[in-house]
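Lesson 9: reading folded outputs for more than one chain in a single document. The general rule is that every protein is listed as its sequence immediately followed by its structure tokens, and records are never interleaved. Here is the first one.
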Amino acid sequence: MPGSTKKERQTIKKRFTCDLAARCQAELYHLYDRHCGSLIPLQRAAHGVKGAIVKCYQGVHCECRTKSLVYAGKERNNWLTDNIYLPSDFKVSGGEATVSKILMEKVDARLGDSVLEKTLWNLTTQKVESVNRRLMRSLPSSVNFTRNFSGRAHRAVYSVNHGPGTAIKELCSGVGSPITAGSSVSKDLDKEQKRHLYNKARSQSLRCKIQKRNKRHKIFKLHDCKIDEEIYVKDRVMIEKKK
């Protein structure tokens, strides 16, 4: 890893780990958009992507032009050009065969054939955790719902899939007690459903993703500035801060 001191190399190593995970996940999202549900085409496309990722971190971006789904692989338009974790001139040095083997092992941890087979439908932990949070809300551990446990669990999952307002209306209609249209209850449920859809669309919008990315970039810069200011002086307890 590049760096003049041990601390700098450790920092770059941690940043590289975060960046490699982000790169693999970005490529994986595009692979799922094209081949979600089809295992053989997904694995075949991932083989080329893995080689492009390994070459990219070694400073060779030509394979990204044909195999990468994220960047064009040009000199001024590659993964490291506008990176929030690593500098634009980052390059993994060392023996080419050894470095390629190590990088490929790390990439296989996310884009390997066995991993793709297990995550064929792209069921990320965020989707699973959203269902778990809804289940914990409907089925708290402090109460034993022996009579209607199954119904409350199905209602929680249905609410995650269709939204809180629509789920309550359809479930009430299903049991023969529909909510009157235009009533105060119906209006409140419509507002709740509208708020849910707005927050969902906003979190998935490009503008929100760019804001989150810029915020992460700013936090990393502040962290670097803080590390630069922490200068060790022997036999001195308090260090004067720079104005």
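And here is the second record, again sequence then tokens.
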Amino acid sequence: MTVVEITNQDQFTQFTTTDAANKLIVLYFQTQWADPCKNMSQVLEVISEEVNQKDVRFLSIDADKHPEITDHFEITAVPYFVFVQNGTIVKEISGADPKELVKCLEALSGGSASSANNNKGPKSTSEEENSGSSEDEEEETEEEINARLVKLVQAAPVMLFMKGSPSEPKCGFSRQLVGILREHQIRFGFFDILRDDNVRQSLKKFSDWPTFPQLYINGEFQGGLDIIKESIEEDPEYFQHALQ
């Protein structure tokens, strides 16, 4: 098994300390409910077969089953990758981006994992949604994009449509909403609307809301940054109630 599934704290400690030696440790935080994680798990299996196992170790951590590990690394969005070398975090990646994962592995381990990205395994949800040319995107009908949006807003119990990623927000409003979710310890999925103009433009009509970020809970539109702030002011347990 090239990717080790963490089952308990003792196992995690052993793999990241006693047995770590000089290995690059790749911590992959995922959940069973997030569709991008399902695809990325398959991609990671392929990538892990392409690198030197003497130099790199891949550990998969279910964020819901191991909150003590997840909280230690302050993980609030999945999928999420943490690269650890000699006990130090050297890189973090938020989101399902096989190309970025391969790039980091090659830079940090000195190995080559590019064939895994090019030849094998399914694309991640993010890559599938963003890999088409602009010409292909223009051919997507309103019915098709609406069907895709219905799936996207339900991809996670809490779904954030933002500019950039939680680790690298591309606007102040997105950064603030990510901060609010993390402050309230809410795990969430996200979609970078800058990578898909069809989603960016169509979601405005779909949500009947002209700006981003936009937050969905259980498939229902909640609002943008100001609305979420107001909702929390009115009800400090807003997220808990909305998730019921």
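What the second record shows: The first strand starts at residue 3 and ends at 5.
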